[in-house]
Amino acid sequence: MIQYFADDHYDSHPGRVIFEGLPQNLRKKIRFYENDWEALANGEWLKDCQLLVLHMIGGTCNQPHPDQRAEEHVRQWCEKGGNLLLLHGSSAAFWQWEWWRRGMALRWVRANDPDGMEESFHPVHPYFVKKTSSPHPLTACLRELDLPKDEIYAHLAEQLPFDCLMDTDIPEGHFPQCVIAATPWGGQAIHFLPGHYPEGAGNSDLLYDVQILMEYLL
């Protein structure tokens, strides 16, 4: 099963919008949780997990940061070489955990970052996400995105080697938007950054890309 944990993202519910927009045959393989860190902490999800998908940032949206029990189970998944699909800001899903911060190839840095790194930022306006010239086989499978409005994640901390599959050029600069990297624990992680507002999360091309990424990581 694909285990998909999301927060409500300030009552905009993009994680749920993405889940509900996926094809039915894929949704049947997904257990979706929203604002449910007890489900993350009890570890039941590990029993049949094939892929961990996140659309969340711990300690935001009036939600607590997942606790030590959740940390133990997420770390078990990562250390067994489990694959990760990190949607939008989910490189900061567990930003209070030092080992998680070190394991992110492209990390969203919060204002109160424990490592004292320069804060990331996200301008909001329409933008185009284009494919790069990467020879990775996923690149050819993805669709470029023309989004009417979104949080455009910029100046994330580049901490591990990665292959950039999609990027964007906006007035604020040139920034990766979809990257794939080997985790320190032997798995693969894909960071896919678009998908904050429901208008973007429900975009048919974005939903197609999420489907392709999930199927690749299974």
- Give the spatial strand order of the biggest sheet: 2-1-3-4-11-10-9-6-7
Class inferred from helices and paired strands: alpha/beta
Strand content: 25-35%
- State the helix count: 8
CATH class: Alpha Beta
Fill in the CATH topology.
Rossmann fold
Mean pLDDT: 96
Relative helix content? 25-40%
Give the number of DSSP strands. Answer: 11
| CATH homology superfamily | Class I glutamine amidotransferase (GATase) domain
Secondary-structure arrangement, i.e. CATH architecture: 3-Layer(aba) Sandwich
Notable traits:
single chain; 218 residues; alpha/beta; Rossmann fold; 9-stranded mixed sheet; two-stranded antiparallel ribbon; 8 helices; globular
Explain what the structure shows.
This protein has a single domain (2-217), classed as Rossmann fold (3-Layer(aba) Sandwich). The chain is 27% helix and 28% strand. The protein is globular, with a radius of gyration of 16 Å. The protein starts with a strand and ends with a helix. It has eight helices and eleven strands. The protein has helices at residues 14-21, 24-27, 37-42, 68-79, 98-102, 137-141, 198-201, 204-217, and strands spanning 2-6, 30-34, 51-55, 84-87, 106-107, 124-131, 145-151, 157-158, 163-170, 173-182, 188-192. Strand 10 (173-182) and strand 11 (188-192) form a beta hairpin. The protein has a nine-stranded mixed sheet with strand order 2-1-3-4-11-10-9-6-7. The mean pLDDT is 96. The chain is an alpha/beta fold and 218 residues long.
